[in-house]
């Protein structure tokens, strides 16, 4: 049988979604719709609270407001299309639409990663070099960190999508996932993907490992510094400023490392769907709660925002 090359003529892909069970489509739609709305409202409130309270105009909250914005963009690239497909019989996405979704997904996900690294640097300077904090974490440097995060992330996405666009897709065009991620799409290609996999793994390692190692180094330095503090109360106060950030880092990087730092031969549809849901939907939804529940400054900012809305 002749194998048709779909790389140029393919009209689109079929996204199988979270579950192929017809009876699960509407319950899943309701669950993910609620999670998406919580993500939008929660992260939107964080952004409004930070911008409306002058006492929150600090580097840490500058990065947090941008992290919340990226989380909104991040989930919006994936969830609305997934919700539509849950109620649709075709569950299709165009070839161009798939590449566009892949591009913005990676761009926002990597920006998230670099913003988490920037927040770790902020905590490092605040705890280890507090007397020079205002100079080191100046508004100009914070803006440069943000612009650098976005630039590197979009260049990474562009390279990845260019590599994917050169692949040939033959008999099957069914993606066993709920969005156009790299590994499930690579699985469909009838081209020799060994070189693409090598480039993807190497480049992903560089792009994702760099902020992760930055976070790791920052917290090792913080631990060494905090252990030198003589009082237990002083140690607790220093560590408590890092708790929320560390929680988000563990959620985000734990699932990202599980999904992406394995050979394509070890790719598991069900396990990877669960892990991907964790960092694409669950973590952005939980971030506002993690950063506000034990944060007195954020609680005060949210109360101030509530009072302003009610007045």
UniProtKB/TrEMBL annotation:
It comes from Ovis aries (Sheep). One of its GO terms (molecular function) is G protein-coupled receptor activity. The keyword rRNA processing does not apply. It is a multi-pass membrane protein. This is G-protein coupled receptors family 1 profile domain-containing protein. The keyword Metal-binding does not apply. Keywords: Cell membrane, Disulfide bond, G-protein coupled receptor, Membrane, Olfaction, Receptor, Sensory transduction, Transducer, Transmembrane, Transmembrane helix. PROSITE patterns: G_PROTEIN_RECEP_F1_2.
């Amino acid at each position: 049988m002749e194998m048709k090359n779909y790389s140029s003529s393919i009209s689109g892909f079929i996204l199988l979604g979270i579950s192929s069970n017809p009876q699960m489509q509407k319950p899943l739609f309701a669950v993910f719709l609620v999670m998406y709305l919580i993500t939008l409202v929660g992260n939107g409130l964080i952004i409004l609270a930070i911008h409306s309270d002058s006492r929150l105009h600090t580097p840490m909250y500058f990065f947090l407001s941008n992290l919340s914005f990226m989380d909104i963009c991040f989930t919006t690239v994936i969830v609305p299309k997934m919700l539509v497909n849950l109620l649709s019989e075709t569950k299709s996405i165009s070839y161009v639409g798939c590449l566009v979704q892949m591009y913005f997904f990676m761009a926002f996900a990597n920006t998230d990663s670099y913003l988490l690294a920037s927040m770790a640097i902020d905590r490092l300077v605040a705890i280890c070099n507090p007397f020079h904090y205002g100079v080191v974490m100046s508004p100009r440097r914070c803006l440069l960190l943000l612009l650098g995060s976005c630039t590197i992330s979009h260049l990474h996405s562009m390279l990845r999508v260019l590599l994917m666009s050169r692949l040939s897709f033959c008999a099957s065009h069914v993606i066993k996932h709920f969005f156009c991620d790299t590994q499930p799409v690579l699985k469909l290609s009838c081209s020799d993907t060994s070189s693409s996999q090598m480039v993807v793994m190497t480049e992903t390692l560089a792009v994702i490992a760099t902020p992760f190692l930055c976070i790791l180094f920052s917290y090792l330095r913080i631990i060494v510094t905090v252990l030198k503090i003589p009082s237990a109360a002083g140690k607790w106060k220093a560590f408590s400023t890092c708790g929320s950030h560390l929680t988000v880092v563990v959620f985000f990087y734990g699932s990202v490392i599980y999904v992406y730092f394995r050979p394509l031969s070890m790719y598991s549809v069900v396990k990877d769907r669960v892990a991907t849901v964790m960092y694409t939907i669950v973590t952005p939804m939980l971030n506002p709660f993690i950063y506000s529940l034990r944060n007195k400054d954020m609680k005060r900012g949210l109360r101030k925002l509530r009072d302003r809305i009610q007045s």
